Amino acid sequence: MVDFYRFEHLERFSGCMHAVTMKDTSAPFSLSLALHTGEEKEQIAVNRKMIAESFGVSREWCFVVADQTHSDNIHIVTKKETRGWESQESAVADCDALITDQKGVVLCVLTADCVPVLLYDPEEEVAAAVHAGWKGTKSKIVAKTVRKMQEVFGCSAENIVAGIAPAIGKCCYEVGEEVAQHFFDLREAFTTRGDKYMLDLSFVNKQQLLDSGLQKENIKMSGICTACEVERYFSYRKEQGCSGRFMSMIALL
């Protein structure tokens, strides 16, 4: 069986399932789940099958993966169909956030330092999975996803529960002014190191959720830096351009 990271506050809800995968050196490519990074697709398919079985879903469940492009594009999954799971060609094109009210659909985002955010509204029974790198964070993709949940499904922000999964932390994410300048309005998001900036993207996404109306007690952060915990999570920065990706998943029951 595969080990997952899970959020305790999301675990309390019977209407959804979620999980964040971790490395496993006994699996092909340390249990990377990316089809787009050049590994043998047959071996990645083995990994994905292992994850699906460990996640505990039936054969009738569908998995939806997007072709992530660091955009602020959001896709609404309106029917049960698998996309991007068996092949990259079938992935949702040019998209970095997925939302659904369909039960039995697993929304998936792939990361190796960027910020994965899982959202769940237990009242309207809506789930979302968001991929927020610095470009997506700059364009406030997580706030736009909350807004889309409100507009399309009538969600109330105060009911939405959020889990901010492992991502590179301020301790390790050094950027230049060309990146940091986009977050200068949130002074707590960074510290300076010479002419460089140590940026906390998870904190910025949390603040965007708060600004969107989510309750502070409904937002939980893993507190895990992927670069510090590189034995457990893939880190593009720490591993100097690694091709591995771990997956954050959420589904309605």
From TrEMBL:
Coiled coil: none
Pfam families, A to Z: Cu-oxidase_4
Key words, A-Z: Hydrolase, Metal-binding, Transferase, Zinc
InterPro entries per UniProt: Cu_polyphenol_OxRdtase (IPR003730), Cu_polyphenol_OxRdtase_sf (IPR038371), Cytotoxic_necrot_fac-like_cat (IPR011324)
Gene Ontology terms, MF aspect: copper ion binding; hydrolase activity; S-methyl-5-thioadenosine phosphorylase activity
Domain of life (superkingdom): Bacteria
Family: Belongs to the purine nucleoside phosphorylase YfiH/LACC1 family.
Entry protein name: Purine nucleoside phosphorylase
Organism name: Sulfurovum indicum
